[in-house]
Amino acid sequence: MLPGLLFLSSITGIAQANPEFESWIRMQREASVTKLLANISRVDTAPGTIVASPSKSDPDYYYHWVRDGALVADVLISAYDTESDSNRKKHLGKILRDWVTLSQKQQTIKTLSGLGEPKFNADGSAFNDPWGRPQNDGPALRAIALIRLARILLKEGHGSYVTKTLYDSTHPTQSVIKKDLEHVSHEWRKPTFDLWEEVRGDHLYTRIVQKRALLDGAALARDLNDAGAAEWYQGQANTINQAIAQHWNPALRLWIPTLNRDTGPDKPADIDTAVILGSLHGTAHDAKPASHSLSPSTDAMLSSALAAKKAFSGLYAINRAGFPAVAIGRYPEDTYYGGNPWVLTTAAFAELNYRIAREINTAGKLRVTALNAPFFKDIGFDAETGDVIQKGSPRFRELLKKLKDEGDSYLKRIRVHGYASGSLSEQIDKTTGHMMSASDLTWNYASVLTALWHRDRLAVPTQ
Ligand code: NOJ
Ligand code: NOJ
Q1: What separation in Å is there between the alpha carbon of 444 and the centre of ligand 1?
Q2: Could you tell me which residues come within 8 angstroms of residue 32 by beta carbon, excluding any fewer than 6 positions away?
Q3: For a pocket test of ligand 2, which of 119, 196, 331, 427 has the largest count of ligand atoms closer than 8 A to its C-beta?
Q4: What residues are paired with 60 via a beta bridge?
Q5: pTM given for the model
Q6: Catalytic residue (one of 197, 299, 378, 456)
Q7: Residue 294: strand, helix, or coil
Q8: pLDDT tens-digit profile of 194-208?
Q9: Where are the alpha helices (DSSP H) in 158-298?
Q10: Closest CA to 209 of 233, 235, 237
Q11: Residue 324 to residue 120: CA distance in whole angstroms
Q12: Which ligand is nearest to the Cα of residue 340, counting in written order?
């Protein structure tokens, strides 16, 4: 393992209200780093391959998924950016370059669905068995992560690697970011399988990450003197935004996960944690107040999040057993492995609450509305529609504290079910509470680490 990655160590000096929980967090943070890294460039895989899990049967997750890989790489990019030890930084840089090289190869080899191909064999080759394809969130997530990497490398003076390998301004291009952006900007209207690999249609999650990829891509293209491309990406992002708006259902007060479904399970409740993940993956990691229409602290997202929490709270036997928080699944109608709560969706609710707190803190106030009041009431913060809670007031501090406690409760919930070693499987058995399905799911560790990243940056007194 890489001991003590700096960005992973919690900011000191904050009063620690619950030393025992904080010590679990330290353990889980370290274990998450070690176990995440253990799933990358394994001895029997191509360099840069990020297996979804070491599990080779029931389920066989020994593949490189483009989506999981990009979300994991994004965490490594944060680590690379803040690492001060030169050996460790070099090591992380090598892993990331291997992932870039692998991605570039996988963009060019023949696959059944082109760039939207969801997963590859562990040796880097195309996976040609039947699968839900294409999954067009993959190239968008990969572009988002690669653009962050490009920005960091430019700042560090590695301009030639960036303009040769990551983003050149030629067309057609061989560079990895521009290839993904060309795919996203030309293909986003087509139906695609969702991130859960089951439903074909138009997905809010996919649209949100596509929009962010194109906005980040337009900014990068502008900076690298590719003005025509910048304008094209920006224009497509604006059009995606109109498509995104169609997903809001004012009567249900919900963001609808999928429109125009033509294959895959129906979700009559129209509730899916994919919407929450879209909010998290569709915004930069800063805490700008409501920087896009689906940011964590927006009224519509708060309303959708509360509806999801309520749907899962009555659904699983273990949610009636008096544990902290609600264990969160993918969507209520899920039947995969019997339909259980998942670790990464439960961690997403922790991150969501931390990010709501950060955004409200940056905004400097909360305006209570009919749409957001029920969310705040549910976390124990009763306020009247029309109230404005101003930064600096005791009520504002109370609000941030409640959000932090709510976020923490999801991590406490993961603690209840996780192994003492910090190992986390994909799912939590809805009846016994035991870890189940894919062991050491790489994405789990990424989701815990990003939740902690935001927790570290909360300006909230702990008592
Ligand atoms: C495997 C997919 O990865 C999973 O998301 C899905 O639920 C099952 N197949 C069933 O289709
Ligand atoms: C199944 C999940 O539904 C999907 O989102 C994920 O990419 C794969 N497992 C691999 O972890």
Answers
A1: 16
A2: 422, 424, 444, 445, 448, 449
A3: 196
A4: 56
A5: 0.95
A6: 197
A7: coil
A8: 999 999 999 999 999
A9: 159-161, 176-187, 204-223, 227-245, 274-281
A10: 237
A11: 38
A12: 1
